[in-house]
Amino acid sequence: MTAEKMVVLNDQLKPSPSEKLASQWADNPRWNKAQRTYSPQKVTQLQLAQPFDFSTAKAAADNLWSLLNQPELIHCDGTLSPEQAQQQQRSGKLLAYLAGWQITADQNFGFPLYNDFTRFPVNSMPGMVHQLSQTIDPTTMPIIADAEVDCSGVLNAYELMRSYIEAGVAGVHFEDQLMVLKQSGHHEGRVLLPTREAVQKLVAARLAADVANSNTLIFVRCDAHSAALTTSNSDPADAQFLSGTRNQEGYYHTQSSIEHAIARGLAYAPYADVLWLETERPDLLQAAQFSKAIHKQSPGKLLAYNCANDFIWADRFNQTQIAQYHKHLQSLGYKLLFTNSDGFKLKSVSKRKIAAPAFNQMPNALAKAPQQARI
């Protein structure tokens, strides 16, 4: 056999890119419980002949996955600016969280500033991730970002996920709300998407990560605990929670309950890496119900919980109970604890402390500020 024929034969024996990808999905424990509704061939068809380098996002995602698989619960507080991220890193924080609540109220690329409303350009959040990535090393302090900006369809979810990966993000969280009426999960007025539509967006996000050859983590926030409306009655998965009535805007009334949140969590589990339970108030009993039900069907599934800093904690717990709350969540199997808006509130409170003193006391207030937050 000639050397030329040997080369041809060797090329024929080499696995194709799609075969290599199929082997990765089969052999990597990361994907043991993951489901994809598309083939490895579809991914390789979408990949460019000379793909972009997404190694930063890939390394960041691998580090985030490792951190979340440690036994300790991680606290992830909201970051509003690169400087805040730098201070968080210096104080020993392991993660940075870029919440849409904060970017809508400040730092977005548009002129309107409304806290917790999706009314700003789609590149605002990826742009902020890019700024953070220039200040901290996202591979050592991974960034989780909110996919809040008008994910009105699967293509929007795909493109936003790709933009985040280009910026170096480690994980992105999606919500099962209608974005045009989006609210924080512990506030009233939310309208749910049908379960099927929410799953389709998770699939689109995973496809974007696969095409980018990145293991970017997908978080999904379950808002059904406190949401009373949904856009459609067409999804059989939602039928048991529908009341059969509609409001004046045409949305369907649905049951707000931990059972509804559990049902959606179970439906999302094969398509997301982390399930986030969102409740209107801190409730360990409901957190335990959610954890037990999810882990019965999907053992070891990563769970997150939101301890919003505008919860009225004193109405439900004493100081000792508040201090022990995160330990209880850890015992229930939760791995990540979010506080989403503290960056924005810290900025406002700090400014108020400096601005509040009378004019003749201002130099003293300004003199103390650099000592409290060294840059």
UniProtKB/TrEMBL annotation:
<keyword id="KW-0460">Magnesium</keyword>
<feature type="binding site">
    <location>
        <position position="146"/>
    </location>
    <ligand>
        <name>Mg(2+)</name>
    </ligand>
</feature>
<dbReference type="InterPro" id="IPR039556">
    <property type="entry name" value="ICL/PEPM"/>
</dbReference>
<keyword id="KW-0479">Metal-binding</keyword>
<dbReference type="InterPro" id="IPR040442">
    <property type="entry name" value="Pyrv_kinase-like_dom_sf"/>
</dbReference>
<protein>
    <recommendedName>
        <fullName>Isocitrate lyase</fullName>
    </recommendedName>
</protein>
<dbReference type="GO" id="GO:0046872">
    <property type="term" value="F:metal ion binding"/>
</dbReference>
<keyword id="KW-0456">Lyase</keyword>
<dbReference type="GO" id="GO:0019752">
    <property type="term" value="P:carboxylic acid metabolic process"/>
</dbReference>
<dbReference type="InterPro" id="IPR006254">
    <property type="entry name" value="Isocitrate_lyase"/>
</dbReference>
<dbReference type="InterPro" id="IPR015813">
    <property type="entry name" value="Pyrv/PenolPyrv_kinase-like_dom"/>
</dbReference>
<dbReference type="GO" id="GO:0004451">
    <property type="term" value="F:isocitrate lyase activity"/>
</dbReference>
<dbReference type="Pfam" id="PF00463">
    <property type="entry name" value="ICL"/>
</dbReference>
